[in-house]
Design brief:
Blueprint: E1 13-19, H1 29-33, E2 39-41, E3 47-49, E4 65-71, H2 72-95, E5 104-108, H3 113-129, E6 132-139, H4 145-160, E7 164-169, H5 178-196, E8 200-202, H6 207-220, E9 233-236, E10 239-242, H7 250-259, H8 276-291, H9 295-324, E11 325-326, E12 329-331, H10 332-336, H11 340-351, H12 360-373, E13 380-385, E14 388-392, E15 396-400, E16 421-423
Parallel strand pairs: 5-6, 5-8, 6-7, 8-10
Antiparallel strand pairs: 1-4, 2-3, 9-10, 11-12, 12-15, 13-14, 13-16, 14-15
Helix pairs in contact: 2-3, 2-7, 3-7, 6-8, 6-9, 11-12
């Protein structure tokens, strides 16, 4: 901001502090010096000043702190942006018909900035629309006392606002990996859904999460569908997952929490770059911003373009699927007659609803298995996970959750990333 436009003696202007990232050594002394709790943890592990709380007292004054003047008009606009978050959530709920009286909504509530903002905003809307609001918190227990403290804060938040609260502690046998944790969360949501007797689950994924997801998928290998980012609504078994904050940036969510004096949990593991998403957030994105400061907007634009192309592809695919599908089973001879790109897409669409994280190599392995099994009358079975198989015979191919009694062979599966073949 160019301070030359501001008169320091003009009472309509406010003195504000901000962190000079180039000079900051992340000593966090400024945090303890601020008596107004205006300095918080920001992106990449650097402290950040909340301009809504900053009074310009200059008690945090240090070599890495700059001061500037913000006009009241700018402050008012910032407040409008926060109110806009609530409006976006309200419009989202209207779009998906979730504002009916006595409708029950479960929020996946970690207690962090995103879910705090979502739950707080929904609580305000509840007064107007009279829907039932519930919160579900899964204590991973990976950070011992810190995890338990976060659970307690979540419970106290819900008690304060009279929000129904459900919590569990993750079983110690679950692997401490992002994939295992994601699967465990969905299972937890299923139990919370049964407890509250509703299939509506709301998660607090935001606009920044779309960017991080796309970068991760590009690194792993993805197609146009993968470039579409995160769906605002999708089914998972009997659950319906809604994501009302996908059009809101993380920085606006943090400002909303600060403006409403919320005190979200600050998960220390969010700065641990051994986790892929954290590495993308704290290491990869800053490097990409050196090429293009607006890289996050550019990636979101890529996502929107991919969605438009995906819609065109789906319209064509529906015609193809009518020819090759017989209810949930695929006619093998029809499938093998398709072009290679169509085979890829049909298999991709077949397995992704099962929440499998499959790349191009794995899909090629599946197609190779089908082509080798296409002339067998009795057929073969390919293991995809420890509880999902693909059966293929000369007549048909389809997914099965349990193996039939035809197979009398036992195969010990030690590595579920590999394929195992079973003759029927």
């Amino acid at each position: 901001m160019n301070n030359s436009f501001f008169n320091q003696n003009d009472p309509s202007n406010h003195l504000k502090a901000r962190i000079n990232i180039e000079k900051c050594k992340r000593c966090y002394k400024c945090v303890s010096r601020c008596p107004h709790n205006a300095i918080i943890m920001g992106e990449k592990g650097y402290p950040k000043v909340d301009p809504l709380k900053c009074t310009g007292c200059q008690l945090c004054k240090k070599n890495c702190i700059d001061f500037y003047y913000e006009n009241k008009i700018t402050s008012a606009q910032r407040l409008n942006d926060e109110i806009n978050i609530e409006k976006k959530i309200e419009n989202f709920l209207k779009k998906h018909n979730l504002l009916q009286e006595k409708t029950s909504l479960i929020v996946g509530f970690s207690g962090g900035f995103d879910s705090c903002a979502l739950l707080y905003s929904l609580n305000k809307l509840r007064e107007k629309y009279k829907f039932n609001l519930c919160a579900a918190h899964l204590n991973h227990g990976w950070r011992d006392a810190e995890s338990d403290k976060e659970e307690t804060k979540c419970k106290e938040f819900c008690e304060k606002y009279n929000i129904s609260f459900y919590t569990e502690k993750l079983d110690e046998s679950v692997d401490k990996t992002e994939t295992a944790a994601r699967e465990a969360r969905y299972e937890f949501f299923e139990r919370a859904s049964s407890y509250f007797n509703t299939s509506n689950i709301l998660t607090a994924h935001n606009k920044n999460d779309i960017v991080e997801t796309l970068i991760y998928r590009i690194c792993k290998g993805t197609g146009i569908k993968g470039l579409c980012g995160i769906d605002e609504k999708r089914k998972h078994k009997d659950l319906i997952i809604f994501r009302p904050l996908l059009d809101v940036e993380r920085i606006d969510i943090e400002a909303y929490c600060n403006a409403n004096n919320l005190e979200p949990n600050n998960d220390s593991s969010n700065f641990n770059t051994k986790y892929k998403r954290n590495y993308i957030r704290h290491e990869i994105l800053p490097m990409l911003e050196k090429i293009n400061l607006n890289v996050q907007n550019s990636i979101n634009s890529l996502c929107e373009n991919a969605k438009e192309n995906e819609q065109i592809i789906n319209e064509y695919l529906e015609l193809i699927k009518k020819e090759i599908f017989d209810e949930s089973k695929i006619k093998t001879n029809k499938f093998t007659a398709l072009s290679t790109p169509l085979k890829h897409r049909i298999i991709y669409d077949l397995i992704t609803p099962k929440n499998l994280d499959y790349d191009r190599k794995k899909i090629l392995e599946i197609i190779d298995f089908i082509e080798k099994s296409a002339n067998l009358k009795t057929g073969k079975t390919l293991s995809l996970t420890n509880n999902l198989w693909l059966f293929c015979s000369k007549k048909e191919l389809y997914l099965i959750n349990t193996l039939g009694k035809k197979s009398n062979k036992t195969i010990k599966i030690n590595d579920f990333s590999k394929s195992y073949f079973i003759d029927n």
